[in-house]
């Protein structure tokens, strides 16, 4: 090493020295605590409580109940089984000695009281095996004297567990998927403690709950639930325990030392007065002892550094040099404090990034591509990781800016000037230095340039965009080429494939759904199924945005256009118009489920069905609220709401569209989308392509995973396998890209760049698919091996397809692993 402090021994000594400083601080804190001795005043306060109890308060309190005890009664909750016990035993006066001290502090420096008095009673078999106790959150009413108190006697927690199960994917391979389940943990109250507000007087005074000493009995339930909703429902019903348990009730004096102890300086429920001064002092001595060991270790490491690099301590020979000088030392002095001389002093940099920029500048002067790649790509991984940044972010946000600040020029312009255009490394460096969406706009333009079109590149980029990234890419493309990406797609692609790319990559979710609605309405006939699909699966916000987008695109109101269709009438028209007018501000914030259940029940009872009442209840509820409404209805009337509504709306004169819309609203969203997808595959003569596309575009990776799992659960088939079976060509690839994970789609795109019999490796495609993917690189490596039936690794593939410095650079990118400390909101 050139710089005397730049070695592992020196920095190790600094690190150990900092540990010694921390130990010094810890010792000082404990020694100061020993001097302050916070325990002693707490103990004195408690001793005063004990003296007062022994001399006055005990006799006063025990005399209060010498001849009479308070009346007590209990009223069970409405959900408890009939015949549940309410018999309260007679009060027992607990009078014990030292056993009732009740403090968790085991030291012997505080007084022990030998007088204790409390009232005790119990309700035998309060929780009985043959009788179900109250439901969770239901009150039991307890009356003691003039005090009436309500409290819960059962609680129930839901715990989620994760396990794995093996399923076959679209390629017939066994893969592990998450298979969560839930359990419930009911608890039953066994003891409740009260403290009076007044020590003396006659009769029981105002009581307050003292929760520190309540006792709950936890019961293990082995039942496993397949959903959190089912587990929550299991917690809402009333349960009976496996063993009979009594409910004990205890009343204590407010002056009892056990109660008073909790009011002393932070003791609280712990009832511990803290360490003694001697204990603090011992801890301080231990801290100082370890500090001494750490200082010895720091000196040892510093000495190793000195011996390795030949430097001297600051004051070593200082007096001699000041008087006589060193005639044999012509070396330049260092500016580092606490350092010395350097044998072969190199250029000194204040920060690592300054050295990186200097190395890039020197390599650019000589036009050495290998050195440029080394400085810009290979050598900065450690620095990026130290700052908790992805490497490609570090290059664009740190290196480019610093290179310009230090006066070396514009890095992209310098590289374009020094590296020949035919060299693929120039494109690779340009990709590393360019903002992601600007670069992807260039890649898309190249894919559509000239004869033909690179459909694999278009599919991989446009079918993997996040919702927030669509307009960023649109703006980048139009800014660079002065025409919209949508115009380019319209001229370069065709058919159903064009429809997928336009809706998935050129339109936001609102614009895409507005176009689907327009397609369903305009022309001869009305595609009612398309309208139902969107009305049922869109959230209030998305539907509101879709209606606004429809007006912006077609200068018409979507609700009026739908109402004007002859195929949409009656109750079907009413429910569609109600759903299309959904607004996020109209969502019911606190639904009255009991009232809604009654309205629905009244709507389906008797002659005829009140469809308007049903629509009024369902229109402004979220999916979660609709699911809760169904559970409430099922629990109240012991019948399935969906089946009842289906029965009421089925018949010769009933609207199938109205019925199908109701069933969609009352079905889990992902499950309903899975049903719509299957229906789209089973058209009369061909697929319902609008249905397939509209249900697959603009789904987040998390949503798509849920939809794919629901599809497998409902239909027993894999969604991608059915797409491959029913669709062909680029259209099939685009739909598969929408469903598969991003990493798997990128892996397929990389594989498609391989050289063929008459074609060479698509180097531009490789650059596009490997750069700006640092966060996903681990997953891409895994998915590439799955995609390669022969088990080829991504690194092997790149070494086979490329050569020279271009191969080395791509392999370095593909081997990258992001820092463990990095988090990003768009990570998939």
Describe this structure in words.
The chain is of the alpha+beta class and 828 residues long. The protein has 37 helices and twelve strands. Strand 7 (164-168) and strand 8 form a beta hairpin. The protein is flat and about 105 Å long. 33% of the residues are buried. The model is unreliable at 1-5 and 330-344 (pLDDT under 50).
Salient structural properties:
828 residues; 7-stranded mixed beta sheet; 3-stranded antiparallel beta sheet
User: What portion of residues is helical?
Assistant: 40-55%
Number of helical elements: 37
Q: Please outline the major beta sheet.
A: 7 strands, mixed
Oligomer state of the chains in this structure: single chain
Summarize it.
By secondary structure, the chain is α+β, with helices and mostly antiparallel strands. A hairpin with a 5-residue loop joins strand 7 and strand 8.
Helix-strand blueprint:
Elements: H1 8-36, H2 39-64, E1 72-75, E2 92-94, E3 118-127, E4 139-144, E5 147-152, E6 154-161, E7 164-168, E8 174-178, E9 181-196, E10 207-209, E11 215-218, H3 228-236, E12 245-252, H4 257-260, H5 277-309, H6 318-324, H7 352-366, H8 369-378, H9 381-386, H10 391-405, H11 411-418, H12 424-433, H13 436-448, H14 455-462, H15 467-481, H16 485-492, H17 495-506, H18 509-521, H19 528-537, H20 540-554, H21 558-563, H22 570-580, H23 593-604, H24 611-618, H25 623-637, H26 641-648, H27 656-665, H28 669-681, H29 689-696, H30 701-715, H31 719-726, H32 729-739, H33 742-752, H34 763-770, H35 777-787, H36 794-801, H37 804-814
Parallel strand pairs: 9-12
Antiparallel strand pairs: 1-4, 2-3, 3-12, 4-5, 6-9, 7-8, 9-10, 9-11
Helix pairs in contact: 1-5, 7-8, 7-10, 8-37, 11-12, 12-34, 13-14, 13-15, 14-17, 14-32, 16-17, 17-32, 18-19, 18-20, 19-27, 19-29, 22-24, 22-27, 23-24, 23-25, 28-29, 28-30, 31-32, 33-34, 33-35, 36-37
